[in-house]
């Protein structure tokens, strides 16, 4: 491991998105200058530099990296249905490689990129395959069947390639459903009505505030190499015991380690061991607005 780093300026791509805007505000609140890049949306006021550009454009990315010593790449088409298959795949992989290659060539030492729980190919798989086991971890066997999941799998390979080519250290986060608390409450209600719809990602979720904290932890952690790191809140979207729910909705799938109570069906031990990160927010510990009122 290397010594912890303290970035002075970070380029955040996809800064107008849900994770991007909250991450920008979080980093700025910790004294880190942020250059915010996005091709559309409202760029966050907390960033002291705004760049209206496409992350697939290497020249624009290179210019936006001026004075930066780290990059957080969150720009992507985030669902396989949000464009033609070729567009979803090519946009995502081109943007990721453009960001990593421009950062690596400039000697930037740290990058954090958004992968996805879908990098395994299981949740969006048209054949509706179940995970090979629970809890889901970063070594889950891959079964790719859609352009978005394929792009996230390639992004993880790009991270490993960038480290070998330029020595840039990269953390690729496998984000689950990441939303603000109010939206997660609604998602939990929807999941309870149809648990089978999201069993393939283990009913996982993450509060967007914890996503921003995880990004910050990955920027400063004393690590080397390219690492894929799974994230999730410590519980699930559903109110029942996790093992009972899996027995009902994923019968026959091995449970390789105990999941007591409402324990998450995603193994997040790598995030804790590598980055010292634990989520702070859950649906149980954070009351809904109605409960506060």
What does this structure look like?
The protein has helices at 18-29, 58-64, 85-105, 147-166, 181-193, 208-220, 242-249, 269-275, 289-292; strands at 9-13, 33-38, 49-52, 70-73, 110-116, 169-175, 177-179, 205-207, 226-230. With 293 residues, it is an alpha/beta fold. The chain has one domain: NAD(P)-binding Rossmann-like Domain (Rossmann fold). The strands form 2 sheets. Strands 3-2-1-4-5-6-9 form a 7-stranded parallel beta sheet, sandwiched between helices. Strand 7 (177-179), helix 5 (181-193) and strand 8 form a beta-alpha-beta unit. The longest helix has 21 residues, at 85-105. Keywords: NAD, Oxidoreductase. Belongs to the NAD(P)-dependent epimerase/dehydratase family. GO terms for molecular function: oxidoreductase activity.
The average pLDDT score comes to 95
Count of DSSP E strands?
Answer: 9
Given the C-alpha coordinates, what overall shape results? globular
Category by helix and strand content: alpha/beta
Instruction: State the strand order across the main sheet.
Output: 3-2-1-4-5-6-9
Low-confidence runs of at least 5 consecutive residues: 289-293
Keywords: NAD, Oxidoreductase
InterPro entries: Epimerase_deHydtase, NAD(P)-bd_dom_sf
GO molecular function: oxidoreductase activity
Family: Belongs to the NAD(P)-dependent epimerase/dehydratase family.
